[in-house]
Amino acid sequence: MEENLKIEILFPEFCNLYGDISNMKYLKKCLPKAKFIETTFDKEPTFIKENVNFIYLGPMTENMQEKVIEKLKPYKTRIEELIKQNVIFLITGNALEIFGNYIENEDGSKVEALKIFDIFAKRDMLHRHNSIFIGKWGNIELVGFKSQFTFAYGDNENNYFANVEKGIGINKESKLEGIYKNNFIGTYLIGPILILNPMFTKSLIEKMGIKDMKIAFEEDLSAAYEQRLIEFKKL
To answer: By residue range, what is the domain housing residue 147?
Structure first.
């Protein structure tokens, strides 16, 4: 039942670069009876002591990355437990890097991360990468955008999120985008991804137990998605 769903949005006051908090604004339109919990940085995450169905963390500044890592480190075991329990995580933009081994600065110094997935990131703050993206998640074709100062490295061959059709993966040499394990989804895609990809959104809602649901503005978003897919393929 929709009213039994708990969806936790982590640190929305800071983790909202590129307007990606619109992912959750849209999900609220799709699931108006669900309980949405906005956990500010000064509060303990709800997922520590309560069961939640969905956890969202969006992109942030590099300085904030380091603060979020320290904030979440005491809860690493709990996060790993929730991943094993198939709780849905949607982690967008550079928030993905928090769950890797470390983030390396230009001077070679490293920021130790949560070490949940065997990847690491390298920063290059003088060069921003911008690109469009088309890729496959299962049988769903995804569209999106990338805008980043960092790339991730490591072996995600057995737990990647999407096969790249146009654009890049976790780095310029990779054709495998993001991390996907159980229901944990970590991706550099911004956009926001839920609005850009209505079938993907429907799939995530189905994973929360809501079947055959018509999502908010489905016809309009589907038409926009189809048009964007055509345009991206022409570029």
So the answer is: 2-234
